[in-house]
Amino acid sequence: MSVELDVFVGNTTIMDKEVFQLWLNGYTVSDAVKVRIEGGIMEECEANAEVLLSDTMDQYRTFQMCERLLHHPAKLSNQLLFQIPPDRQAMLIERYYAFDDAFVREVLGKKLSKGTKKDLDDVSAKTGIMLKSCRRQFDNFKRVFKVVEELKGPLVENIQQHFLLPDQLGRDYAAIVFFASNRFETGKKKLQYLTFQDFAFCAGQLINHWTVGAVDNMMDDMDVDLDKEFLQDLKDLKILITDKDLLDQHKSLVCTALRGKTNVFNEMEANFKNLSRSLVNIAAKLINAKDVRDFFIDLVEKFIEPCRSDRWTSIDVNLYLTHYTNSAHILDTFKHHGVWTRYMGVIKSCILRIYH
Amino acid sequence: MPGKLKAKIVAGRHLPVMDRASDLTDAFVEVKFGNTTFKTDVYPKSLNPQWNSEWFKFEVDDKDLQDEPLQITVLDHDIYSANDAIGKVYIDIDPLLCSEAATVISGWLPIYDTIHGIRGEINVLVKVDLFNDLNRFRQSSCGVKFFCTTSIPRCYRAVMVHGFVEELVVNEDPEYQWIDRIRTPRASNEARQRLIFLMSGELQRKIGLKVLEMGGNAVVGYLQCFDLEGETGLVVRAIGTACTLEKISTLTSASTTHPSNSSPSKDMKEPIFGEEAPGNPLFSGPPTPLRVQTFSSFSPSKSYSRQSSSSDTELSLTPKTGMGSGGSAGKDAGPLKALMRQQTQSALEQREYPFFTLTSFPPGFLLHVGGVVNARSVKLLDRIHNPDEPETRDAWWEEIRQEIKCHAKALGCHAVVGYSESTSICEEVCILSASGTAVILGSRFMQDGPLDTDHRLSRQPLVFSTGAERVEGDMGSSISLGFEEVAPPGCGFCHIPYDELNIPFPAQLTNCYCCRRYKVPDVLFTTIDLPTEANITGKGCLIQARLCRTKKKAQGEGNATAISNLLPFLEYELHTQLMNKLKLRGMNALFGLRIQISVGETMLLGLASATGVYLTALPSPGGIQIAGKTPSDITYEQHISNMQKKINDTIAKNKEIYEVNPPEFVEEVIGSPIPEPRQRSRLFRSQSESSDDVSELDLSYGKKDAFVLEIDDTDAVEDIHALLTDFPTPPGFYSCNTEIMPGIQNWTSAIQMFTSVRVFRLNNANLTNQGLNKIFSELCENLLKSFYFKLRSMVPCCLCHLNFTVAIPEDELIQVAVTAVAMSFDKEQTLENGRQSGDKTLIKAITENDEQLQFSLELNAELSSPNPLSSTKGLSDVSGSHLSARDRCSSWIEQLRLKAHIIRRGSVKTTSSLEKASPLPEGRSRSLRRNRSYSGSSVAVVKMTPLSLLPGAKIIKYLGIINMFFIRETTSLREEGGVSGFLHTFIAEVFAMVRAHVAALGGNAVVSYSMKECVFMENPNKNQAQCLINVSGDAVIFVRESELEATSVQPQSATTQTSNGGEGT
User: Fold this and answer.
1) How far, in Å, CA of B1053 to CA of B273, rounded?
2) Do A83 and B985 touch (CB under 8 A)?
3) What is the tens place of the pLDDT at every residue in B349-363?
4) Sheet containing B903-904: which strands, arranged edge to edge?
């Protein structure tokens, strides 16, 4: 005696948020039923396990049928197969494209290739996120990446338009795409303390200020690549550390401004040349793709760690960077104000974000 | 005669990839109508082609326009090999042929392939230029409107109800033709789809012709069914009710007058009638016309009733019965023959079957309800030799209809409403069933009704005063029923139509609890919706009787005989179960009763669904008493008393749930001993015997009624078990199989239509009847439980129009398909609105009083002189009919007769019931609360509902009938998610196609939607499955009531508008 076939189709497609989440999380039907039973839904609705199983199977089937459409969210709104109210559609898309921070930290900056996909079982084991869910998240990244890779115009808007994602999620995806295409190293031990949101913030800064699209929206190029011209120009900043006078002048200006305003003034004064050299060297090297990848590791190793060991507070860092940036403009012989502002603006906000 | 069909192919989207190399498609379109084909250019390398074709014009006969669908095929162009078909779209252009329906079909329609399902969409434009044909001998019937809705459609007014129309067409099933062996499954499926499309078109055209002949312009309650007989062919048959409808324009009132309309104030308020009357609870019941005294001439004489009840013999099929009845009626009507002659020939013909497929009626249409009439017949299918003359099938149905007619007469009724027909086929055996409700219709609606001409005029004024008084009384809860000869509208239909001295079956009659003037039966079973004016107590609920009976495998006639022997038992037990469950809920009437019997190779399935209510007019049902046979054993006694307690508790609980608090409470505990129920073997007693039994019965048996279940009887144990295993509906849920739940108002606009299918495999080959029953019952209960769970977010809500369809697709498989709509309602405002509507009713009742007079009915079956044509035809039918087993099971009358052995009822005390008998005005308004948060989306939302109405909305236009047939087949069942995945997709696709076609017609909803057929076959070993689905409904445009309010300026409709609006907010 067995139920051979069991379907329920509503004119308006019924989708339970809770079950959808379980499905997204990669639970099997029987596991999902267990979770639901533990959630106490049976007592609430006078249901039994059989009913719950039937409902869960049905929902899972619906989601599977919908998944094809969710791959192209724009299709969801003009397909005819499922009648889903607009707010429900938005919910489905948002949840389908949502990802776990733990997971994204593992693949952030990695090439979204088959090789990486093969390693997902390790990621799954490490993060405790089910493999199925990992695959979905990875495929989402890859899909978004593939679509926007070739598109012109602002990255975030492109993503939001093509995948109908809410603002924040669109930005996060932009960060993921940006990291993947520039292959920023994020997995090193020293970077482990950084959250995805830290990186996403930095990515936002980089996208907004350092890419081609940042200066000229009309450009044919896209937001994904850093502005080569700008990177080239960054080399000119080397003068700040190569020219001894300039370096000293800069130091004295900064020190004058900082004196008495911080508890770590002595450390700042002592480390000025080192730190300045690090920042300018990072800038100068960015023209090499390999060094772009190490951008974050460089920031952490060469700037954040020394500051941290000297017990700077983030207020101190902020103060230091503000004066460091501003003072350069007062230098007589320093001519590269535009590049400097563009560079230091991003560096400052990135450092402040990841200094914790 | 000719018409010009124009089609334009605009674009495609979401096309599948047909060329693996480029991941693109080179699509073009073939547009075919009849034998003419046009092609678009190839649009190369695109999944979203823009053809933007010219207008393809087809100059065709209007007959073809009705029969043929427009066939659009999307193909992938291939230079080297044959072009691959992507899929097809069939467009029924019938809605374009009627001036009042849609004018253009325009929109995105899914491209459908029987193997792959939906593959993209195509945007088309279709128009028709029709030159009206006034040729009297024309073959077409363009312009006749078809409605699936089983009431007068909401924006129409019935000028005239002509009566029953039926037709059937027969063809060979392409699936069984020799050519099927060499063609692909796709070709075979497409041939079948196309054939059925053609046959439905032809059927509609032929029915339309009949309607035109009768002088009507529309078919209401159109029910079309397929019989897939297999080897012997394919039958498409349809029944409906021919009407003359008139569109209600809010600007004009009193535009029509009818000869029979003698109402003095008819021009007062016409528009309300058609749009509001049917099934609309806003109508708190304008009065039924007075009880016509002369109706006794309809009531069967004693001898007549006997004659009819012998109708389970072959003889009843011969026209003798018909002749006899006609003769006797003719005598009464003798002097009035002159009047009758004035009636048209067509009217005479249709009187052959005074049947109506309608289930809800304008107030006053229904005078008295007799009860359910039901007929079944087991046939052996034979090859249909000449498809153009499907005589045998016609004859089969004729027999059944004759029988129904006889049963109705036996109940003292002259008409059958809520009439429907169905079949169940297994191999070569076919069970034909028909059922309906025997009624007496309001005499004033019978055009030139000779019987009441003198009475009618004299009494009319009385009616008006009654109406006003009643409503007042209703409101003040103190009804004064002192008028003479007037039946109050809330209970009038319950009054027995038959002669109380010659009751056709042993029923316990009491005085009506509402008016206390006329006799009412103890229980009332009907197939119709609850009349809007009916007084009820509490709420209703779904009641189902489920039954399985094993049978031996057999062939041919032996099989047919075995089945026909089993049928009466099955029906009897279904009836008993229904009765038990009804009493368990403390209710006394069933509406919307639908009994389905399905035949399989080794078993028969019976499923009876109905909505139970407590009619205030009827006496309170007694409890259920369990009696033991061997009282010596103490444990046994204890067991019995335990059970009795359980039952009593359940009854008490149910009364609470459904708010059944009848004015007079009959105690359940029955002290006196009960006579032992008779053996079931008595089932086939002859009529004379049975009437003897009746007189034998102890009728003076106390004041209390008892329904006794004998525990020694294994059947009874089973019954009790079945009673107590019914799962109570969870809080916040109600369910019914009628249109609207009796006793619930305040519907919000939130609705959710759904279809659910379950197939259950019985792995144990040797199951007892009890075991099977249990499984089947659990299957149905679990389905309901699943619905409640799935729809929990809509609470408080009611599952309306729960329509269960059972089938036995294979040995050991049980398939249950359910289509229903969940509608949420507002709990808090019930009382308040009840008050409000009470006020409104007053106004309405007065104004609408006149409208009923506008309604006229061309029906006069009893009075027709025996029609020589029909009788000779009948004779030849019998002689020519196939000599197969043709046992029919006995009718409900028979069942009801038997009931007497179990039901005892003494006289019921009625003295103190007067003041309680009038319930509070239940606020029968559908308070239509608009959900203001409603918003549109990019794809137009199309609502679907099996009901004829949309809560909170007003249907402003009917765009035409939707009648679609699809086949889906797969050879990769596992890959598509198994049987469930396959069917889930298919049903979703069917919904999508219905919605798309409605949207293309310009509509935003489908009402009266139903899934007529869902035939599922699988072969998991071969990884194959096939499914056929037939759906139908009415495409409509609705507007939210609140939107309507803003625009309404017509003074005529002011009353309606404001009252609606008042409740809507």
Assistant:
1) 11
2) no
3) 346 788 999 888 877
4) B623-627, B706-710, B903-904
* C-beta atoms of A51 and B763 within 8 A: no
DSSP string, B893-934: HHHHHHHTTTEE------GGGHHHHSPPP---S---B--TT-
Cα separation, A135 vs B833, in Å, equals 55
Instruction: Give the helix ranges, DSSP H, for B524-588.
Output: 556-584
d(CA B219, CA B162): 10
Q: With beta carbons under 8 A apart, name residues in chain B contacting A47.
A: 785, 788-789
Cβ atoms < 10 Å from Cβ of B394: 17
Question: Is B470 strand, coil or helix?
Answer: helix
Half-sphere exposure of B902 (CA within 13 A, CB side): 29
Q: What is the mean pLDDT of residues A294-320?
A: 87
- Is A12 within 8 Å of chain B by CB? yes
A81 CB within 8 Å of a chain B CB: yes
Q: Which residue from B785, B813, B987 is facing A47, i.e. has the nearest CB?
A: B785
Question: Tokens 């792995």 — which residue?
Answer: B763
* C-alpha gyration radius of chain B: 28
Q: Which residues of B867-902 are buried (b: 16+ CB within 10 A; e: fewer)?
A: beebbebbeebbeebeebbbbbbbbbbbbbbbbbbb
Residues facing B1026 on adjacent strands: B969, B1017
CA distance B438 to B412: 8
pLDDT tens digits, one per residue of B955-1006: 988 999 999 999 999 999 888 888 999 999 999 999 999 999 999 999 999 9
A86 to chain B, any CB pair closer than 8 A? The answer is yes
Q: Count CB pairs under 8 A between chains A and B.
A: 137
Contact B408, B438 (CB under 8 A): yes
pLDDT category at B952 given cuts 50, 70, 90 is confident
State whether residue A46 sits within 8 Å of chain B by CB.
yes
Q: Nearest Cα to B862, choosing from B408, B288, B302, B367? A: B408
Contact B938 A1 (CB under 8 A): no
Instruction: Average the pLDDT over each of A197-201, A275-279, B262-266, B935-939 and give the range with the smallest value.
Output: B262-266
Beta strands B27-33 and B70-76, pairing class: antiparallel
Helix (H) or strand (E) run with residue B251 in it: none
Is pTM beyond 0.90? Reply is no
Q: Are B584 and B803 in contact (CB under 8 A)?
A: no
- Among A1, A14, A78, whose Cβ lies nearest the Cβ of B790? A14
Count of beta carbons in the 10 Å neighbourhood of residue A228: 11
Instruction: Assign 3-class secondary structure to B727-787.
Output: CCCCCCEEECCCCCCCCCCCEEEEEEEEEEEEEEECCCCCCCHHHHHHHHHHHHHHHHHHH
Inform me whether the pLDDT recorded for B388 exceeds 70.
Answer: no
Q: Say if strands B953-970 and B943-944 run parallel, antiparallel, or are unpaired.
A: unpaired
Alpha helices in B372-487 (DSSP H): 391-410, 453-476
Contact: A46, B108; criterion CB under 8 Å:
no
Q: Let me know the angle formed at the C-alpha of B128 by B123 and B133, rounded to the nearest 5 degrees.
A: 165
Q: Please state, in angstroms and as integers, the Cα–Cα distance from residue B940 to each residue in B82, B481, B929, B1042, following that order.
A: 37, 53, 22, 20
Whole-complex ipTM: 0.88
If DSSP states are collapsed to H, E and C, what string results for B139-172? CCCCCCEECCCCCCCCCEEEEEEEEEEEEEEEEC
Task: Report the residue of chain A nearest B939, measured CA to CA.
Answer: A78
Q: How far apart are the first and last CA of chain A?
A: 62
Judging by beta carbons within 10 Å of its beta carbon (0-12, 13-18, 19+), is residue B695 exposed, middle or buried?
exposed
Looking at residue A93, its pLDDT comes to 93
Dist CA A196 CA A296 (whole Å): 13
Cβ contacts of B1031 on chain A, cutoff 8 Å: none
